[in-house]
Protein 1
Amino acid sequence: MGSIAECISGTNFKSNKIKIDNMYLYGAGGHAKVIMDVLKENGIELTGIIDDNPHIREWMGYPVLSYDPKRMFPILISVGNNSIRKNIAEQLYKKNAVFGTAISIHAIVSPYAKIGEGSVIMQGSILQSCCQTGKHCIVNTGAAIDHECILEDYVHVSPHATLCGNVQVGEGSWIGAGAVINPGVKIGKRTVIGSGSVVCKDMPDGVTAYGSPCRIIKNNSQL
């Protein structure tokens, strides 16, 4: 992730991303439907949908295709589950995939925010100054990410969750819908914060926690 000094320099998603007019999606499910809306409102054509399930042949009027890295780019992984999205991304990186981003025109994104490749910013979300997302993150509908927050790779912030200033969320963690993370709190890697929780203190790697105040309820051997 970049430093705050780099953020202040003015580098942001608007200046360092090439304008594109088409996109492929990998994953024919509900999450893809919302990403499709984000693409359409930006005037980006959905060129095709890719899925590994041989029983899915059609999706929203589009034929479901097998991935061809030589012609299917740029691409977004339209899978909400963090671990599955990471596994797909790792396989696609081996094939030299080219990833895009999808940022809703109905989101509020600071010019000093940084959005990692493969990430999706949904309608009504807010990303304030000097916050950063890693690769293949999801900032879902109406989520609020305040100043200087850092989301590492493969993080999913669910609808209407609120991250106050200087929050850090580790790789692959999932913040449930409507959760509130207090200022300066650090969430570990591969951790799940339950919907509606209020997180007042740091959370370690690999746990599930929920409640107000949020408490650890189990350790996760695998997410």
Protein 2
Amino acid sequence: MNKIRISLKTILFTCIIFCILSPKPQESDKTCIVYLSRTNNTKAVAEMIQQEVGGDLIPVELQNPYPADYNAIVKQVSEENESGFLPPLKIKLELDKYNTIFLGFPTWGMQLPPPVKSFLNDNNLTGKTVIPFNTHGGYGLGSSLRTIGKLCPNSTILEVFSIKGGIERDGVYLYIKEDRAVEVKSEVKNWLQKIGMLR
């Protein structure tokens, strides 16, 4: 009986020491998934990424939201792109604890949307890994990746994931749903495996 008690004490002591000495995940190892989404297609991809790799979902939101009307937002975004205006974001994001940042965005006017430029301008991502993902209406990324490269000169930028989403102009909003969502989820998983990000 004494031998059993001694053995149990030894096992318990070993477990306690192991728990104390085992390396804990560092805050700097955390992942976040930052995304801008108007029609929820980019959000759908962001949630798929989170299901596979974990991390915190962080939407990019403006202090003054864009108008709901499609033609009005196209006009406003075009003016912002021409003038270089960066719309202020609703909150200042604290990214110090993250070293891997998935960056999701739609293609607007064949460019990176102004709110995403605001996010990159407001945050120093030096030394961090930036992983872009994108939804578009059928015309691809445009100049978005070049802009990300310019705004993240000291970041490691991994291969982008880009896929067709809705076409708001034609009244097609959430396109990544039902059977299409199943297809996209498989493509997301393949991409994450390819870039070495699957858990």
